[in-house]
Records
---
Amino acid sequence: MESGRIQNLSTDYNYSTVPTKILNDNRLSATAKGILAFLLSLPKNHNINKKDLPKYFKEGYFALNNAFEELVKHRIIHKIEVRDKKGHYKGYEYIVHEFPKKRYGDQKKVIPNRSIRKSVENNSEVKLVNQIFNEDCLVTMSKMPDEFIDMVLTSPPYGSIRHYNGNNKFEFEKIAVELTRIIKTGGIIVWVVGDEVKHGSETGTPFKQALFFKERCGLRIHDSLIWNKNTCTYPAKPNGLRYSQCFEYMFVFSKGAPAVVNLICDKPNRWAGTTNFGQKTDRDENDQLVPVKKFKPIPEYSPRTNIWRYVTGNGYSTEDKIAHQHPAIFPEQLASDHILTWTNEGDIVYDCFAGSGTVLKMSKQHDRKYIGSEIVKDYFDLIVKRLSICPYSKSTL
Ligand SMILES: C[S@@+](CC[C@H](N)C(=O)[O-])C[C@H]1O[C@@H](n2cnc3c(N)ncnc32)[C@H](O)[C@@H]1O
């Protein structure tokens, strides 16, 4: 069997997953499925070579080689041709992901010389902070150490209305697992997402995603908020089937208890200042009503509810005209409200689907550090322009 390093890029949790779609795939032999399960179960960074596989299996050399090639053929394991900078062939490398990645065409890798390799070192803060990257967010996150980010505030592509130059599909599971890895204990992920109707039913994708973050990534669903829009793209007709769709979900996931919570108190109280209207009562341990002795005056403002309403559309979501070149921006005020609620000054905010850069701009304005990934070059250029005209409010960062 030819040699070739195999890299297991699955998660480093204490379990590994083989997607049922692969287990049920009749085109794959049981040996191929066994090899896949074995590779995914190895500890991360375990150094295994293709030629060593016969050491771990009872099957013979040919059976194993054929089964391995089945996995390569079905693009479950990616085969990468390695060449040095002079173009000399150096063999193959193999990559296996817990959640299969789609790749088209042959993969090639050029080994950098030693001095270049050396430069990919730690000091992530200096290299990543206050930067925007024109690449797949999985690539950006692969440069981040564990527990690096204070808050992720993002809105993934959803539905089939927007296309983002063909980037309306993304590897949800892989990204969710990576986001979980890079946030600090106490860190927050705000996931702003809507649903769409397909074949007569809402897809339920936002709920599936929320449950994946909870049940597979181990995060808490700390809060679920609604972003209520003042307008809707397709208003309901009297003879229609559904009411006008005018909201998106804003799931707030946390790694353990949130480190920062500054609730926004902007709900005016009608009875502000009152201390003694009526006799306030409470129930004692026997469920009997007893008068409450101390009753603080009602404050002028209390925390708002979990339904946040914003006026959206051209000129309302932002005053930056260029931002509207992006088809799906969310209001600056929405980003601002989450940033102020879940982070403090100097914290690092990451948007893995940066779009027009709303989150990055508002982070900058509130003196948070920011990192963004945007895969489409035109949107990336737009963000660079938008950020260049937005100053920090202080000169500390
Ligand atoms: C819903 S939009 C985000 C809009 C953003 N919240 C704003 O206010 O401008 C999603 C963005 O994610 C980008 N995108 C899709 N897949 C991506 C990926 N794998 N990595 C980075 N960006 C991606 C799309 O190009 C699109 O611009």
---
Amino acid sequence: MDIKNNLLMICHECDALQDVSQIPEENIALCVCCGGRLFKNSKSAIEKPLALIIACVILFIVANSYPIMKLNIMGIERETTLTGSAIIFFEQGRPDLAMVVWFTSVLLPGFSIFALCYILISIYFKKCWRFTRSLLLWVSRLLPWGMMDVFLLAILVALVKLSSLADIVLGLGFIAFVALILCYAAAISSIEMHVLWDSLDKKSLGIRP
Ligand SMILES: [Zn+2]
């Protein structure tokens, strides 16, 4: 048996090293020692996440370009975007909170979405562009820090509390933001990181050994 042609993988649960090169398409590889899920050999391992990430790019641009809500308190109207809400915290003397909100709901998700788009397009066209490897490394590290869903929860709590004090109109940015969270979750769950690394490691990309 030629070990160079085998695809070896370490189980994240028990660290057992095993050969996963013979997993049929659309089947899930399980660890022979602990039964933990290793990966799914999906036929559309690149196309499906790429389509979802392109949708995320569009939704991210819309969510950050349009107001998330418009408040009317006793005739005084004010509307804000995602970045605008962080600026409000900054103006009220809470730069720490402003930074946390902006990093976890705008900067990190934005970086992950655009970087994944770059990586998936690179792999889809069977190229390894200059920054593909380093971006994939950074995305793997930063994914747990994107907390758009927590920010959405905070917005919903604020909406409930403010509903008795002000007239609230949800903006296009809010609708796009909710759609973005759903689309982003679907994209991340469809990405098999080892398939991306495996594709980059092969000299002839996209061709299974
Ligand atoms: Zn295991």
